[in-house]
Specification:
heterodimer; A: 212 residues; alpha/beta; eight-stranded mixed sheet; four-stranded mixed sheet; 33% strand; B: 282 residues; 12 helices
C-alpha cells in the first residue's frame, strides 16, 4: 500500500515536526504549497499552529482554497491538525468573524474562561488530556487500536463546535468544558490535539490515517 | 525599582485570581494533566548543570539525555542555551534539529532569542515553543511580535526570579544581571502582551535540591491566566507533589534530579499519582 501524503505548507505551523512524525510512521511525505500537487495527491494533511485568520490568509495567498475544497470533495482522505482542523469548519470567532473552508458545518469558538464549576481556569488549554470517544461515534479509523482513553497533547485557546453531532468522534474535557477532540465526516478528519507531539499514541494515530 | 509586595503575591488565597484548587488536583478530574518536563541546560554541545544558574558542570550529550527521557515518557523537553544570551549567538539550532527527528513530544527552546526571525529559525528546526527572557525584558514588545506571528501558544516567558525583601526581582543572563522588574508584575505584563506560558525559575533554589520556592511559584501561578512551569530546586519526588499542591504549579521542570538519576520519571509519576495528582498514562 502506498503511504504517500501531501503536507500543506502555507506558512503556518510546525511542518517539520509533522513531517518527521509522518516519516517515522513510514510515510512518503511531500511538502507543498502548490495547487497543482493536489490533483494527484492520495492523502492530505493540513498542519497548523497560530491564528485562524492568518491560516485562511496563508491558504488564500497560496491559491489553495479551491484546490483544497475540490480535493476534499473528491473523497480522498484529508486530516486537519489543530488550526488545520479548525480551518475545515464554516466560521470562526477569533478576533472578529472569519470564514473557513466550510468542509464541515460548524463554528470555531473561544474555550470558556471558566470551568463548569464557575471558577476561572487557564487558557490556553495546554497539556496532555484523555480522549473520550463520543457515544455515537462511527469514525473508528483514526483511533483504531488505541485503548479506552488515550492521552494526547493539546495546546489551543479555541475549539470546534460542529453543527452536526454525528461528526464528533472524540472529546476531551477541560474542567468540565467539552472540547471537540476528533471529527470525521466522510473522508474528512480533524484532530484538535497534536498527534505529532503526542508520543507513541500520536504516532499510532498518524499511522492509522496513513492506512486509510 | 518596584518589587512585588507580600499582600499582592497570591499567598492570600481569597485574593488570588486563579485559586489553586481549580487549577490543580481536581480529583477524578477533567483538567489537563500535570506535566512533568525535562529541562536540559546546554552550553555549546554539552548538557550542563550548575547551582543558582552558575558554576556550570558538564553532564553529557543533551541529545542522548533527551532521547532517554522521551523513551521514559517525559511530557515535554525544554532546552535552554545558557550562553547564547551573553554572546548574542545561537548554536541551539542543530541540537534542536537532531532532537526533533526522534522525539515526538513538545520541545521548548530558549537562550539568546532576540527577534521574530530567531523564533522562525528555531520553529523550522523543530521547536514547538520558544522561551524568551533577556530580550523580552529589554524589549517587551518582542513578546507581542512573536505572539502575533506564531501564536501565544508558542511564547513561553522565561523568568529568573531572585528573592528580595518584599518580593522577587526578575534577573537575566542566567541570574547575573538585574532588571529592576518585580516578578509577579512582569509575569502579568508578559501574559497581557501575549505570553502563553511562564517558565519560572528560582535563582535561589536552582541546583540546591532543597525544594521549590513555593511562595514564588504560588504568587505567580495564582496571578496569571496561563500555565506556570515551576523550575529550580527539586530534590526528590515529594517536592514535585508539594509544588503542585501548595505552589499551584501547572507543570514542573526537572533538571539535575533526572540528569544525575536521583529520581526517575517513573518515580515522579508514581509519587504524583499516589498523591492524587493526575499524570499521563503510558
Amino acid at each position: 500500500m502506498s503511504r504517500s501524503v501531501l503536507v500543506v505548507d502555507y506558512g503556518l505551523g510546525n511542518i517539520m515536526s509533522v513531517t518527521r512524525a509522518l516519516t517515522i510512521c513510514g510515510a512518503d511525505v511531500h511538502l507543498s504549497s502548490s495547487a497543482s500537487d493536489f490533483i494527484g495527491a492520495e492523502r492530505v494533511i493540513i498542519p497548523g499552529v497560530g491564528a485562524f485568520a492568518d491560516g485562511m490568509e496563508g491558504l488564500r495567498r497560496n491559491g489553495l482554497l479551491e484546490p483544497l475544497r475540490n480535493y476534499a470533495e473528491s473523497g480522498r482522505p484529508i486530516l486537519g491538525i489543530c488550526l488545520g482542523m479548525q480551518l475545515l469548519l464554516s466560521t470562526a470567532e477569533e478576533f472578529g468573524d472569519h470564514e473557513g473552508l466550510d468542509l464541515i458545518a460548524g463554528r470555531v469558538v473561544a474555550i470558556p474562561n471558566t470551568g463548569t464549576d464557575g471558577h476561572r481556569h487557564k487558557i490556553p488549554h495546554v497539556g496532555w488530556n484523555a480522549l473520550h470517544r463520543a457515544a455515537n461515534h462511527k469514525g473508528e479509523m483514526l483511533l483504531h487500536d488505541l485503548g479506552d482513553s488515550p492521552h494526547v497533547y493539546f495546546v489551543h485557546s479555541y475549539s470546534v463546535v460542529p453543527q452536526n453531532e454525528s461528526v464528533r468522534v472524540a472529546d476531551a474535557y477541560y474542567n468540565g468544558r467539552r472540547i471537540t477532540a476528533v471529527v470525521n465526516q466522510g473522508m474528512i478528519f480533524g484532530c484538535q490535539f497534536h498527534p505529532e507531539k503526542s508520543g507513541e499514541v500520536g504516532l499510532k494515530i498518524l499511522t492509522n490515517f496513513l492506512s486509510i | 525599582m518596584s518589587l512585588d509586595h507580600h499582600q499582592h503575591n497570591g499567598l492570600n488565597k481569597d485574593g488570588s485570581n486563579f485559586p489553586c484548587d481549580t487549577v490543580t488536583k481536581v480529583s477524578g478530574s477533567v483538567r489537563s494533566l500535570l506535566r512533568i518536563i525535562a529541562r536540559l541546560d546546554v552550553k555549546g554541545a554539552n548538557l550542563i548543570k550548575g547551582m543558582h544558574l552558575e558554576g556550570l558542570r558538564i553532564v553529557g550529550d543533551p541529545q542522548e539525555f533527551a532521547q532517554q527521557y522521551y523513551q521514559q515518557g517525559v511530557d515535554e523537553i525544554i532546552y535552554i542555551d545558557t550562553v547564547a544570551s551573553l554572546y548574542g549567538r545561537n548554536n541551539l539550532v542543530e541540537i534542536v534539529r537532531r532532537t526533533a527527528e526522534s522525539i515526538f513530544v513538545p520541545i521548548t527552546v530558549g537562550g539568546g532569542i532576540r527577534s521574530v526571525d530567531d523564533v522562525r529559525t528555531l520553529l523550522r528546526a523543530g521547536a514547538d515553543k520558544v522561551a524568551i527572557n533577556t530580550a523580552a525584558t529589554e524589549n517587551p514588545s518582542l513578546i507581542e511580535e512573536v505572539a502575533r506571528s506564531f501564536g501565544s501558544q508558542c511564547v513561553v516567558l522565561s523568568i529568573e526570579a531572585k528573592r528580595r525583601p518584599g518580593g522577587w526581582e526578575a534577573l537575566v543572563n542566567n541570574g547575573r544581571d538585574r532588571t529592576g522588574r518585580g516578578v509577579v508584575e512582569w509575569a502579568m505584563e508578559g501574559v497581557q502582551r501575549g505570553a502563553g506560558e511562564i517558565l519560572l525559575t528560582s535563582v535561589d533554589q536552582e541546583g540546591t535540591r532543597k525544594g521549590f520556592d513555593l511562595e514564588l511559584i504560588r504568587a505567580v501561578a495564582t496571578s496569571v491566566s496561563v500555565p506556570v512551569i515551576a523550575s529550580g530546586g527539586l530534590g526528590n519526588a515529594e517536592d514535585l507533589v508539594t509544588v503542585v499542591q501548595n505552589g499551584c504549579a501547572d507543570a514542573v521542570a526537572v533538571a539535575d534530579a533526572l540528569h544525575y538519576n536521583r529520581c526517575s520519571l517513573s518515580d515522579l509519576r508514581r509519587k504524583a499519582h499516589s498523591a492524587g495528582l493526575e499524570v499521563r498514562m503510558l
